[in-house]
Amino acid sequence: MTDAGSTPTQRQTRAVRLGPRSWAALALVSAVGVAGVGWPFLAPPDSSVNAHAQDAPWLFAGLLVLLVAVVAATISESGLGPKSVAMLGVLAATGAALRPIGAGTAGLEPMFFLMVLSGRVLGPGFGFVLGSVTMFASALLTGGVGPWLPFQMLSMGWFTTGAALLPGADRLRGRAELCLLAAYGFLAAFAYGTVMNMAGWPFMSALASNISFDPDASLPVNLARFLAYCLATSLGWDLGRALVTVALTLTLGTPVLKALRRATRRAAFEAPVTFEETPR
Question: How many Å apart are CA 193 and CA 199, to the nearest integer?
């Protein structure tokens, strides 16, 4: 560990190092997730998928539950040891406890900044599991269990993993790193809201509003409807979430990052386990 602004001489320790199998599983579930939220724009108007506009979200939700579980199990096999599990439990419990503070009111969701910083320090594998588990735990805590939960788990997994994939993890420190994380948190907060809008948008009846999904409409028409839907229903929440994430990252980012890096260094996740032979 080095002082802020200096260049560290060692690579950053990761709680979980992803292998090819884990990356393949993560890519598979991400592809299914993209299809699950983007199918209204991917399927042509005359597609048989559109004939099941009210059923498709349920199908994708059920499929995502299984796939997220498969990814979590695959990542666990790649090295989620006891130390990583302990840290996962602490951070997931903290994130789940932070979510009810604002209960999503006006975008006051402080858990997002913790996910950004945790993903940055602990890596993409740990980040994906942490994001998914935290969202699942917070849903149980707040009673927010429904067909939207698998999409929330996947979106939060993406959100946390994205922070881990930002450049300069081994070199960038100080104010520059905080600005990078704040900028990512701002944009990713809107991306998260957009993904969740896409997941819930097809549940609206086409006859209920002129901003709902119309399976018989063309792609440009549905895109315009979706944009209007986002502006009318979630812009204020997404903006609030983004601003809260930026404010907390800039004000609390330095001590939280130091604490996380100190914890990972002391835990020595990547140190090999050795056993001493006792004399007989």
Answer: 10
